[in-house]
Amino acid sequence: MDMDVILKRFEQPDEVREFAKGRFEIVRLGGMTIGRATYQPGWRWKDDVGAAAGATSCHVEHVGMVVSGCATAAMDDGRIIEMKAGDIFYVPPGHDSWVVGDEPYVSIHFLGADDYAAAKDDK
């Protein structure tokens, strides 16, 4: 069975989810949904994404890689981690997150992209 090669770019995403101080671009291919998060300095999940849904904690599971910048993930149980360029991360449900420093934070998401900041998402 011949299969076609598929090439896509985040510059022409299948979907874009925009929110205060950030955006999440979605590309779908090969049965996967991959996301690229871009957050500006001052972005914080509970203020810029969660507030619209009345949530103080993100309940999406994330696996990804930081492309540039730095962000903190603060787990509901009190653990705090810092993620910087080159880090590959797993962040379980139940967390807040914010940009650290004056540089935009960019990360690629291989798990959780379907549900993150979705209109149907009340997380």
TrEMBL record:
InterPro entries: RmlC-like_jellyroll, RmlC_Cupin_sf. This is Cupin. It comes from Sandarakinorhabdus cyanobacteriorum.
